[in-house]
Specification:
Layout: H1 3-11, E1 44-52, E2 55-70, E3 73-86, E4 89-100, E5 106-115, E6 118-127, E7 132-135, E8 141-142, H2 150-156, E9 167-170, E10 181-193, E11 196-206, E12 220-224, E13 231-238, E14 241-252
Antiparallel strand pairs: 1-2, 1-14, 2-3, 3-4, 4-5, 5-6, 6-7, 7-8, 9-10, 10-11, 11-12, 12-13, 13-14
Length: about 260
């Protein structure tokens, strides 16, 4: 698998929504600290088939691992994993996010990338109250108000309504050079994936960066057209082929009990 393919796999994390109100019918978990109403819960697991063209090259998952305390603030802890590859080139990536239950602003983001002979580990501590972040314990760098990281964007979009035909700009990615992110809400569609048949809303996100979500890109994302807004499908057109994600299952797992500072 080329560097372009692995970049495309990682880019599937970067789905950014427009600002708006919480989705209708969203529920707050009973018995937990007050927070913004959300359509997901601890233990939710979404599993995906990853295909390059017609070839299955791996699998992915998105899991809400738990609710944890980070620097005195209750957060959602989520994990995105992707594994697979082709002979002589394997991928084993893990992206973790911790975001505030009240504002959904990112407080912590971890990346573990193991792709072929390339390995990278990055730890971000993000401070929304001061609009700065630190990478691997280094010097503070400028961020933005109410920052969102790669993973937390995926959950933030699920809390918001999406109006077909609208175009939205959102300057909330925690690294300012990636802003603004533009979202076009293209249409409604009904698709069949391994998990079943879904009514969906189709988005086209573009970033001020290179990759499948660049201004010249043609990637599209299908979210379920209901209160949950789960990512059902993602398709991209690359110079060397197409990279697609298809939802395989939606389930729950027993939550882990833990707390961090």
């Amino acid at each position: 698998m080329s560097r372009g393919v692995r970049g495309a796999l990682a880019a599937a994390l970067l789905l950014v929504p427009p600002p708006g109100a919480p989705a209708a019918g969203a529920q707050q978990q009973g018995g937990e600290a007050p927070g913004r109403p959300v359509p997901f819960a601890v233990g939710e697991t979404l599993e995906y088939d990853v295909r390059f063209g017609s070839l299955k090259v791996g699998s992915g998952s998105m899991t809400v691992e738990g609710r944890e305390v980070v620097r005195g603030r209750p957060t959602w802890h989520t994990v995105f994993r992707i594994t697979g590859g082709i002979p002589l080139y394997r991928v084993n990536d893990r992206f973790e996010s911790w975001f505030d239950v009240a504002t959904l602003a990112s407080l912590r983001f971890h990346q573990e990338v193991d792709e072929g002979s390339y390995e990278r580990s990055r730890r971000f501590e993000i401070f929304p109250e001061r609009a700065v972040f630190r990478q691997n314990g280094g010097e503070e760098q400028p961020s933005v108000a109410e920052p969102l990281d790669d993973g937390s964007f995926l959950y933030f979009v699920r809390t918001l309504p999406l109006e077909v035909g609208a175009t939205y700009d959102l300057p909330r990615y925690f690294k300012p050079e990636g802003n603004p992110v533009r979202i076009r809400v293209l249409r409604r569609d009904t698709v069949t994936v391994p998990a079943g048949r879904f009514a969906t809303v189709v988005l086209q996100p573009t970033f001020q960066t290179r990759g499948i979500f660049s201004q010249n890109g043609k990637a599209e994302v299908w979210l379920s057209d209901d209160a949950r807004r789960v990512m059902v499908q993602m398709k991209s057109k690359l110079s060397f082929g197409s990279l697609n994600l298809y939802l395989r299952s939606v389930g729950t797992v027993a939550p882990a009990t833990s707390s961090r500072r």
